[in-house]
Amino acid sequence: MDTRLTARERVLLAEIEHHLRRTDPRLDRRLDRTPGPVARLAHRPRPLVAAVALLSVLTAAGALWAGAGGPRPVLAALLAATAAVLGALALRELARLHLG
Predict the structure, then answer these.
(1) Considering only CA atoms, which of 78, 82, 75 is closest in space to residue 56?
(2) Distances (CA, A) of 62 to 75, 77, 78, 97
(3) Residue 27 neighbours by CB under 8 Å, 6+ apart
(4) Which residues contact 38 (CB under 8 A, 6 or more apart)?
(5) SS3 state of residue 2
(6) Distance CA 81, CA 66 (A)
(7) CA 6 vs CA 2, 13, 64, 86, 89: distances in Å
(8) DSSP 8-state symbol, 35
(9) I want to staple 62 with a disulfide (CB 3.0 to 4.6 A). Which of 13, 44, 79, 89 is the partner?
């Protein structure tokens, strides 16, 4: 992310951060902690694209299984619905990323 702040904006940001640190000491612990591997992967486009592709395949497979009348069609339909919702959430997160 490329942001250039003016001197006035940096001062205002420092004041806000100082106020937040004074009112809530948990902020220091949260800012000092490095994000976990899941959080780091969630902000990269390739794993999100792979997740969308995998969830799309699971959605299609579950829908075909349920539609073909295979054993346990309710479970297959539930798998398809869950994969579709997770795929939509992954697409939404992918759309939030500013690429380029």
Answers:
(1) 82
(2) 8, 6, 8, 29
(3) 20, 21
(4) none
(5) coil
(6) 11
(7) 13, 11, 57, 40, 36
(8) P
(9) 79
Instruction: Please state, for a pLDDT cut of 90, what percent of the chain lies above it.
Output: 36
Residues, the chain: 100
Task: Output phi, psi for 41, to 5 deg.
Answer: -70, -30
- 69: phi > 0 → left, psi -120 to 50 → alpha, else beta; which? left
CA atoms of 18 and 21, how far apart (whole Å): 5
How far apart CA 91 and CA 79 sit, in angstroms, is 18
The residue behind tokens 């004074």 is 22
Q: How does pLDDT run across 39-62, given as a tens digit for each residue?
A: 777 778 888 889 899 999 999 999
